[in-house]
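Tricorn protease homolog
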Amino acid sequence: MKKLALTFLGLGLSIVLPAQSFVRHARLSPDGKSLAFSYQGDIWYWPQQEGKPYRLTLHEAYDGPLEFNAEGSQIAFNSNRFGNSDIFTLDLKGGYPERKTYHAAGDNLSDWHPELGILFSSERAYVTVEWDSELHRIDPNNATPQRFMDALGTHAVASPDGRYIAFMRGSCRASRENYSGPADQEIWLYDTKDQSYKALTENTVNDIYPQWKDNKTLVFLSAKEGRYNLKELSLEGSEKWLTNFSKEGIHDFDIAAGKVLYARKDRWYLASLAKMSEVKTLDIDLRADYRFYPVEQETMRNRIGNYSLSPDGKNVILESHGEVFIGTLDDEKSRTQNLSEHPFYDREALFLNDSTVIFSSDREGNQYRFYQATSTDPKKHDLFESLRHKTSLYFQNKGDLRDALLSPDGKKLAFIEGGTKLQVAEVKEDGSLGTITTLLDAWHRANGLAWSPDSRYLAYNSDDLNFNTEVYIQAVDGKSEPVNISMHPGNDYSPSWSKDGSKLAFISDRNNDNADVWFVWLKREDWLKSEEEREEGYYFNEEPEEEKKEEDKEEDKDKKKDKKEEVKALEIDFENIYDRLEQVTSYSGNESQVLVSDDGETLYFTRYSVSSEGSDLYQIKFDGSDLTQLTKGGMNPNNIQWDKDHKGIYFLSRGSLKHLNLGNKKTTSYSYVEKMTLDKGAERQQVYQEAFRLIRDQFYDPNYHGQNWEKLSEYYQDWALKASTDNDFTFVYNLMLGRLNASHMGLYMFGGEEDLQRESTGRLGIEVKMESKGARVTRLVANTPADRSKNNLKVGDLITHINGEELNEARNFYSYWTATVGEPILVQLERNGESQEIVIRPARSINAQLYEEWVESRKALVEKYSNGRLGYIHIRGMDKPSFERFERELMASGYGKEGIVIDVRFNGGGWTTDYLMAVLNVRQHAYTIPRGAAASLDENKKFSEYYPYSERLPLAAWTKPSVALCNESSYSNAEIFSHAYKTLNHGTLVGKPTFGAVISTGGASLLNGAFIRLPFRAWYVKSTGENMENGPAVPDVIVENPPASRAANQDAQLQKAVEILLEQIDNPNK
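Tokens:
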């Protein structure tokens, strides 16, 4: 086969790509002879697998997956051309695609059956809290999709005779091949004849993508020993493996006419189901033109992500889309020069001096190093004025070099190496780096680096193993340990020095979780001064010198021009320095980004104002007086920095640079134009490499769950870089991440190159079934637009007209509701034989109402099961709003009850387990009786259940019995809650084992706007030492809720929980 060599210019990296094209979603025609697939985001057709495939669709959107109809004359496919995943059909003879679905919810195609029509999954007005989807079909004779099953799932496929529907249930993503746990995807069977459900696979690994071989036999992918292989299963129960791949599993397949087509890595293979050993490798060699420009000349305005000022105050370094530009600080000049000019990530630039800029770059492809940009014009040392520049390697070491910060005297450079090592290097007279001193080498990182005015100390904030962030001061000579100056269990960060050496300001959330401005007195003497002494001075201070003559003053000014300002060495009294803290602000909301005036008298910071939607810049005296707003209108100032003379403040506002003059309070805006070359292929290479390094350096398990991460990256790289779209690239990358078998992971790309329509669907809160004369309402969700008191629909109503247009079966009902959110829509209907009109204003979302519907139904069931003795609380998420609702429900649902049922099923996690434990951990130690409640204190025993919790505790309290519910869709912090509930013996845990997905995660934005999740912290059960990641919380009593229970309004798990709690209440000593 021919080889195509692509060399990324200047990377020192040559990648040889086979001419074989990476195509996806390939499907066989019903006769097994032709092939359709997705490439470059379009649908292609390869008739008889002869000649060359040709393109069927041509659109900026991503088209795929796809399915043939039974005759092989049409193709149905998914496409996001209207902003979400809709379904279209296309005649192979030609013509335009026909849109089949019109709903803002994603519609995921799975089958095209000759009688049942197109089958797909979606989430419209039936799913409430569950993680599975609704199953819909588009009848061949009716344009409006209809939900055809009361159970939930995904990927429904109908047997050839239409009697059986195979579908998937479970929430583990398919890319986790070697996941083994309660949330695995299993294959179920729905018998349309008797409307029964049966689990066809019952194990702990993913079984996915079922297809029918015949009316009694399924073929699907099953994760055998961590790799997907083809498995055959008869409805009678016999099974056999069709493949046995161990290195690279199968990620997609199709069967037709006794043949099986399957994909491993970027290749497709064709075999006979009767004789799998006879395999043909398909040679899909597409020499297609680019769908989008592979290289573009881009001009950007107001897209600045970072900036740095030159020492002389004339120029500014600007960073935009991974490039470093230089501009001048003249608001009438927008021209910039690109100093880095490279497709990889160039960032965190600063002036080493007025003629040299250094920055961090990964242009060599394997780590970040420091590079320098200088002028090569001997007559023009000014980088902005010079038209000749040179970029060269400045410094490299073993680890990534990031976050460089030059000392005020220009003689030292602080930086972070390898992610966590804080280094300080000597800057020699020739600008090169000399001796390097390591200040901090630990698991945690020093953030918010700030040089002291005398260049002898660094202030920074860093975490301890309890993840408490503190502010430290450390001498840069490396001879002493860092000193904790904040010393509080709250988070303290963003230090900033006053130039006079009197104060170090920082932000702290120690006061009611509000981020406020604080500072520490660096000298004990300053701290002990009274207010009068600060204003007037000590009695024994030296008398001020007599006024000099005017000529003497002028002479002094001339001398200062020729003499560099001398900076006095700081005097810091470190003993008990944390005792000298002062709080400056105490407003509601959060302050951030503090600067201190040279004399230490005034502090500048940003905060949200009550009157605007964004934040603004403020100033305040160090004693908390004279708060003044400096910018208006919610400018969202970011990265605030002093100008050269400390008479004004520069900041970024929505991507543009601005300057605030502190004298006249005038704000000057600068508008820069940044021109660059965008090489999309090289950018993908950079994203691949950087995402690899981020996982390598930050993944919580240094052994990568037993995988060789470096070899995995090498194995997947050529495949990923062959991707013709961002969608395909992320698909491959996430397969690689799946090999780590970890939760909280994923690479996401947003936006992309395509320019698509973004349709919205007005939501009414109903389900309908189309009839010849209109749409019959079959379901109504309470409190949705269709259920408002004066303009309401009812189940059984027949909607006949919308805005005067008559409804019929030939038009999709949901197409009438495109772009109607908030608009008054005239609806004509028939109710009990009479015609009437109502007006409905559709909503953008009905998720809240669907959730409340489910919660109210659970409350009603608990009321029924317990005969009114117990209350019920569902915790939607482990976040502050859900916790506040939990506190409210303790009173609303729990008051007067004998116990409470706490439900964390279908809870996606968060961080509030410890809040909930604090509520449940309360033990009553006394009781109180106020005057007037009892005629005599002799009656005190009647009041033994009462205590002023709301008066004495910052949180609510629950001291009565409880029981908790979890299931396989209890995720992350909901699992931590489940573990804690058992560990701390709060009560019985009922339901199904949880997902097994507990890692603290962060993330990083990448060059092209992509985002990579970064799990960084493990969680273990204190009592057992068990890792909660892939170690689910196992209930004390395990109960299954079968698929049919939802429609029957039954909840066996909830019923068992109620039964157990009532038994415990009635028999407390048992």
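The CA atoms of residues 377 and 387 lie 7 Å apart.
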